[in-house]
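User: Can you predict the 3D structure for this chain?
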Amino acid sequence: MLISQVMQKKVITLKPEDTLRDIAQKFSDHDISGAPVVDINKHVVGILSEADILNTLKKHQKELRMVYISPSTGMVGLSFREKNVDKETEVVFSELGNITAQDMMKRDVITVSPDDELQVVVEIIAKGKINRVPVVKNGKLAGIVTRGDIIRAMSKGAMRP
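Assistant: Here is the predicted structure, written as structure tokens:
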């Protein structure tokens, strides 16, 4: 079976300049957990998921603290240590609301062709712990295959065991 037989052709996409607020709204409105980031020519330039957003929020709940090492220890110097900041997630979200997709996305996107066998994307998803794989034809986004698409294909008997 070919990927073209299983892929979703109507794909919710993000633009590199979409803000965290826009992205969260789009994910919520369309009940999705991630999307490819495409440029104006529909070239895939990244991929962004809820996990990437949560990691961004987590990173911004930390701060670097400068630690002075006393001369009494025989050493003089400065060190930086990461410390958790006690901020509510809502506060961090509001502070980061204008951060963009290009600041959070993964740039090393694995893609497949609609003419590839479905087994190719099954292996990518299973091996890489990836939830979705963009489908690219002639350098442009043509669709997407998610874990759910594969499960639906299996439930319809479309895949041989």
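The chain is about 30% helix and 25% strand. The longest strand covers residues 62-69.
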